[in-house]
From TrEMBL:
Its EC number is 2.7.7.7. One of its GO terms (cellular component) is DNA polymerase III complex. InterPro entries: DNA_pol_HolB, DNA_pol_III_delta_C, DNA_Rep/Repair_Clamp_Loader, P-loop_NTPase. The keyword Mitochondrion does not apply. Keywords: DNA replication, DNA-directed DNA polymerase, Nucleotidyltransferase, Transferase. The gene is holB. It catalyses: DNA(n) + a 2'-deoxyribonucleoside 5'-triphosphate = DNA(n+1) + diphosphate. It comes from Lysinibacillus antri. This is DNA polymerase III subunit delta'. Residues 243-328 form the DNA polymerase III delta subunit C-terminal domain. GO terms for molecular function: 3'-5' exonuclease activity; DNA binding; DNA-directed DNA polymerase activity. Pfam families: DNA_pol3_delta2 (PF13177), DNApol3-delta_C (PF09115).
Amino acid sequence: MEGHVEELKAIQPVVMKQLQTIFEKNRTAHAYIFDGAKGTGKQEVAMFFIKLLLCLNPSKNVPCETCRNCKRVDSGNHPNVKQLEPDGQFIKIDQIRDLISGMTKTSIEEGRKVYVLHHADRLNTSSANTLLKFLEEPDGDVTAILLTESYQAILPTIQSRCQHIKFANIPRDILLKQLQEQGVTYSMASTVSMLTYSLDTAISLANDEQFAHARKTVLKLVETVKKNVHEALLVVYEDWLTSFKEKNEIEQALDLLLFAYRDIVAIKADQKANFTYPDMLQSWKELALNTTFERLSQQMQAILQARQNLQRNMNRTLMMEQLMLNLQEGYTFV
């Protein structure tokens, strides 16, 4: 566990310190909401905390990993630990009733009982109200851990009964390292780590042919914009509009385009930034030399404007033609 604890501390230093302090000061609350984006380690940290609470001989606020309780938590066989996933779209009232009756049975061992609700934002009104009663008057020494990716979707009455533990997004350098360990190239890892904090989502993007094609199309567009508007429009008609049909695909492509200009700004400012397209640096350097900060700022504004036009459902061909003209304006070299 030593290595595992260190890993969790690297990903969630603040949360781990918070939970270890709670344990050390013996201030365990009745209920917690672990709130953070997908891939931020909520489940792993929850299991660490449960083990710590139930461990027979913890040391330095870390579970021993070898006692009977630690082993049963690991194998999912501890009678005092219950986990609940949504049944279909929602966590239903019967699931909560079963959980509560399971928690109050005498067959359960002495000591603390812990239950984990996965996707707690999917409680429907009746199941949330049933849970609320139990949160207000738990039977004995009970701790609830509610996991969620959307805190604001949890009823305020439940929020107010729980201690809110906010998970930070995974630091980008850790995600980059994890991706490369999974065999993703540095340049692709640099791109996908700008779009998501989740390792799983990042890996599936990196291995998606459609995404690789999107990345290529965006880079081709940046290259042609500097030549002339006609070539850029040709790329729009032949590559862009044929590749990106869905709204979310266009949105992602516009984000990728924005990141390209952000890279160019970073080069011009001589920042040692984490680039989105490290494989394009040579080409970007040349672009950076032939433009001004003001111009780059206008181009980024134009892309953000296109994103707003997309949300307003503007005709996509028209939107892209307008964007090309705006990106084009003011280039001093032909």
